[in-house]
Amino acid sequence: MDEDEHPLLKVPDFLKNHPELQSRGINLTLPLKPFAVYQTDPLAGTGFARLQMNLESPNHMIPAEVVRSPSQPPLLLMPCLSRIDSVPFHNASLNFLLSFFHQIAEGLEYLHRHRIAHLDMCPDNLVLAHDRHTVADRRVEGKKVYIIDFHTSRQLESPPGTQPAIVLPYTQIDFPSGIKHFDPYSWDVYCLGHVFENRLQVFCHSRPEPLIVRWLIRWLIGTELRQMLTFMRGLVYTLELLSNLPAILRRLLP
């Protein structure tokens, strides 16, 4: 199907003729999400701009550039990476699974440290950079997980542990027991547990569940300690330790 068959697939003229895109030799051919238009809350812009100044780990925000023109709306340019469904979790090692979880937790903790709540953590809002992506954009790190879609995110006044509950926006994770008011940092961690659950189901398609991962997911979804920044830091440290455990044992054993 092309733009002649469906008008939603047509690239708008103002984008085709955007002077900044033309000067860079960028030729737009196809919209990826024609039914969705996202706009980041302007109040959160300062926080995201600050994070973009340092894209090294533990920051897991995708590299992006705001292109401004005197006569056209600003554009946000970023590389197109792969969905996490592209990762073969069904035959991955436990070490790989824990390392993957560690990256996501590391990125979320980094956001919380800067008083930013994502508020829509889910598998669809995570992407992975493969080695081929590093060729197209050298700012991208191969095998790194990136958090995307900040259109409902909030830059908060208070840090974790002191932030009061807010009315949650629409999210892809269902609210527990109809609750709509939640500490935003806690909500992120609750959703993180469901992201881990989603990937665990793929990982365990034809093998038993690792008990340590099942315990971790229950801990994330069920504990009230999730609202503390120190909890997130402890989670990041624990996942890093667990993912490195096989290598540590190999060094220790004769």
TrEMBL record:
Pfam families: Pkinase. It comes from the Eukaryota. One of its GO terms (molecular function) is protein kinase activity. This is Uncharacterized protein.
